[in-house]
Every structure is written in structure tokens, then in C-alpha cells.
């Protein structure tokens, strides 16, 4: 099941709804809808969407999930062609109201890629969520055509790239978190020294029990 959820960690205003999305499969949006509704009914005062180490999947699934959090028919992502003025915007297919308007934070790391980056960018640029993480996301934003060659080889040609709704390139850059988010006692990464992302520290380990510790840290 691509969607996991938890609402046990509490704060004064009520429980925090925790949702972890592991892949963008064909049924991810339906499971996400069910999880949001269940946590909303349980009195969730805010939500955390965990996209750490999510490698992506179906782009159409990212559009369907964005629809669950956004009102109207906003831009989910842009596609830039080989020419500078070739920009096409992908909007939410079925305009409507979001399932919830409660505060939302999205967790990412360097393993968040492709559709996970598209969804993160859509929620961020539409002012629906704040992005938390220890570093930029993976940076996978190419749209490629594959041409089969003789001998069983193939040629991959980049024909376009994904951008966030505000026009930020995803490929090789990734989504830049709004704030660093680390678990208590997590050491700084040596790779971050001297880089633009030096303010981000290594953290958010994917280990048993880390979700509860992370939620308590965020509170």
C-alpha cells in the first residue's frame, strides 16, 4: 500500500495527521483521499505529508493527489520545451474544493524524486504547504523520448523538462526546502560544508520509530 498514516502524536489543538506516501501508483490518490478523510474525522489539527525516499511514479497520480489539497484549478507544473518560449502549464483536471484546509508540511530528502518533486513544488508554489528537509530533493525533471537502435541499444533524447508552477527548474536542482528539519542529536553532513545548502543538516533517518520522534521534534 503506497499510503501509510498515523494520528497518535498530539498537540494542544488536536492530533497531527501523519501521511507517508511511498510511491505514486495508480491507486495512491484514492488511498490518500481515504486517509485524509479518516484523519480529518479523527480531529487532525494539521497534517504532515512524508515524501522522503519516494522515487516517484505516475505523473498523473501526482496531479490527482495535488487536487486533494488544492482549491480550484491551479497549475500543478509547467513543461518547458527545447525552445525558451515553449511553456505548457498542467492544471488540475477537475476543479473543486480541497478535502481539508488545515496546515500542511511536506517532508523531503535527497531520495524524493520525479513525481514527488512535482507534488512538492505544486503544494509549495500554490502556498498550500511548507517544505521541510535536510537537503534539496533529487532533481529528476527530464521528459525523454526513447528511440530503439540496432543491436538492442536505445537512444534517450530529452525533449522537455518539468518546472514548478512558479517556473523553477526541477532537473538537476530539485526542490529547495523552506526550513531545515533534523532529529535531535543528528550530526551535520560533511558534504554540506561550503555549499549553498550549508544551513541544512543531515537528518530525518528512515528507521523504526523515527516518525514519532520527528513529529515530537516538530512540535
UniProtKB/TrEMBL annotation:
<dbReference type="InterPro" id="IPR004447">
    <property type="entry name" value="Peptidase_S41A"/>
</dbReference>
<keyword id="KW-0720">Serine protease</keyword>
<keyword id="KW-0378">Hydrolase</keyword>
<dbReference type="InterPro" id="IPR029045">
    <property type="entry name" value="ClpP/crotonase-like_dom_sf"/>
</dbReference>
<keyword id="KW-0645">Protease</keyword>
<feature type="domain" description="Tail specific protease">
    <location>
        <begin position="7"/>
        <end position="182"/>
    </location>
</feature>
<protein>
    <recommendedName>
        <fullName>Tail specific protease domain-containing protein</fullName>
    </recommendedName>
</protein>
<dbReference type="Pfam" id="PF03572">
    <property type="entry name" value="Peptidase_S41"/>
</dbReference>
<dbReference type="InterPro" id="IPR005151">
    <property type="entry name" value="Tail-specific_protease"/>
</dbReference>
